[in-house]
What we know:
- Chain A is an alpha+beta fold.
- Helix content of chain A is 46%, strand content 12%.
- Chain A is built from four helices and three strands, in the order E-H-E-H-E-H-H.
- In chain A, helix 2 runs antiparallel to helix 3.
- The mean pLDDT of chain A is 92.
- Chain B has one domain.
- Chain B has a six-stranded mixed beta sheet with strand order 17-19-14-20-21-22, sandwiched between helices.
- Chain B is globular.
- The two termini of chain B are 40 Å apart.
- The mean pLDDT of chain B is 94.
- The A-B interface holds A 52-62, 65, 87, 90-91, 93-94, 97-98, 101-103, 105-108, 110-111, 113-115, 117-118, 121-126, 129-130 and B 109-111, 146, 204, 206-210, 220, 241, 243-244, 247-248, 282-288, 313-316, 318-319, 342, 344-345, 349-350, 353-354, 369, 388-389, 391-395.
Amino acid sequence: MKFILxxxxxxxxxxxxxxxxxxxTQVVYQENLDLIGVLAEARxxxxxxxxxxxxxxxxxxxxxxxxxxxxxxxxxxxxxxxxSLQIIEESLATAKKFLADAKVIRYSDKVYDxxxxxxxxxxxxxxxxxxxxx
Amino acid sequence: xxxxxxEILIKDVQFGDVSKVENGTLFINRDEIVSLVMENEYxxxxxxxxxxxxxxxRITPVKDVIEPRVKVDGPGAIFPGVINxxxxxxxxxxxxxxxxxxxxxxxxxxxxEGIIDMSGPGADFTPFSxxxxxxxxxxxxxxxxxxxxxxxxxxxxxxxxxxxxxxGRTVTPDVVHTYETKPLFEQAAQYPExxxxxxxxxxxxxxxxxxxxxxxxDAKKIVPTILYPTEVMDGAILSGNCVSxxxxxxxxxxxxxxIIKHLYAEHGxxxxxxxxxxxxxxxxxxxxxxxxxxxxxxxKFLGLDGAIVSQEGFGNPDTDxxxxxxxxxxxxxxxxxxxxxxxGRDGSSQSLADxxxxxxxxxxxxxxxETIELPPMKKIIGMLDYTDKxxxxxxxxxRPDGSIVAEIQVITxxxxxxxxxxxxxxxY
Lengths: 134, 428
C-alpha cells in the first residue's frame, strides 16, 4: 500500500526516502513543527481524503516529553474516512490535554536523539506491517 | 492443564559464600551472579546489591522485576522459548521464591523512569517495596546501541532469576496452590450452571522499549491466541517494556497476574473460568482492527458469557482497549475493562484517549498524574542523575537534597492495569 509519512523527526526523514523505501511516495518533513503541529498536518491530509495508517499516539512516551512524532497515511485520496478523523481528533485532544497540564521539559541533545530513536522505531514497526505484502 | 504452585516464603535476603535458601532466607553469592551476567559481551559491568523492605533505599531506573521460579515437575521449564526450550508449560509443579525478586536497572535511554522506594511515602505506591530485592545495575559495553543494551539487560534479569529460582528446587514449599483449566468442552461441562468467563490479556507491542514476548516470540508478530492460564505462571509471557513505569507490566506482574488469580478464586463458585486470550497493541491501525476482530471472535468461539479485558500502557492502547470492548460486546459477551487514568493532576480531565458507550463497566488502577513528594533516601541503587528527566518528573523535580517531586507515574507499578496494587476509584 502506498503511503505518505508526516514527521518532524530528522532520523525518520534520513532513514525513509521516496523511491528508496518501498511504497513511500512522499515525506512531509518539517523539523520546526511541534508534536501538535505534526498531528494537525496529518489531520489536514485526512480532511483531504487520505486514510490514517498508524496510530498518532504510538508509544508510552508522553506528549510533553517527546516532541517527535511520525504518522503514516495512505497516498491515495478517497472519500473522507470518519474513523481516521475520529482517531486523529481524539489524539489531538489527548496531546493538547497533556501539554496543557504539564510543563514541557528541556533535555540535552543526547536525550532528544533517544526520543528520535524511539519514534523511529515505533514508525518502523508500523511501516513493516504496511509493507509486508508489497 | 493442572499446575501446582509451591510457594517458598522468603523473609530475608543476604549475601553468602554459597547461594541457597535456608529457613526462609535467600543467600546469594554475589560473584556467581556477576560472572553469569558478565558472560554477555554487551555488558561492561554489573553491580549486585540487595534492597529489603523498610530500608531507606531508592532503586532507579528500574527496567524489569522478575520473580524467581523453577519447574520441578511436568513438561518444560521456566521462561520457555527464551531461557529454556520452547516446550508448552503450565502443568506439573513449579516452585516460587515468594517474597524475593530480581530487579534490573540501567540507563538505556537518556529519559528514564521506574522508581522503587523501600520505605517512606513512595513505598506505599509500589508492590516491590515489600519484596526482598536482588538488584542488578547493568552498564553496557562501549558502542553498544540501545536495542542491544535493552536485550542484554532483559536477558541478564531472566538468567539471574532462573539461577536463583533453581535454589528452590529441593526446598519444601510453605504453601501449595493448585490451579486447573480443562480442555474447552470438559471445562464448559464442569460447571454448566455458572457463567463462562474468559480473560482478554492485552500486551504492549509497539517497538523499542515497548515490547512483550510470548514463548520467545515478539508479540507484535502474533495474532490473538488462546493460552491456558497456568502457562502464564510458568513464564510464557515476558516483559521487554521499559516505558511508562506506573502501568507497564513487569515480568513479575505477568507471572503473578492478579486477574488470573482472582478468576481462579471464583472458578466453580460464581463463574466458570474458561481461559486466556492474549492479544497485542500494535502501531499499525489494520493490526489493531485484525487483533480486536480476533479477540471478539474467540470470545464467541469459546462460548463466553463475559470477558475481563486488561490494557497495558498509555495512549494508543486506549484505542485497542475500546475496539476490543466494542467488538466483544457486539458479540453479546459482557465486558469489564481494566485500565488506569491520565486525568490531570486534579483528576478532572478525560481519563482515556478513547471511549464508547459499551465500555460501561470499568475498573481503574488509579490516576497516574497524581503528584507525590519522595523524600531523600540514604542509599541509591542505580543512578539518580536522570531523575529530573523521568516521565512524570518536571523541571526542578530532583531537589539538591535528593528529594523528588513528581507524578506517581514515575513509580514502578503504581497504577498497574492488572490491578496489582492498591489504587482504584469507586462510584457510590
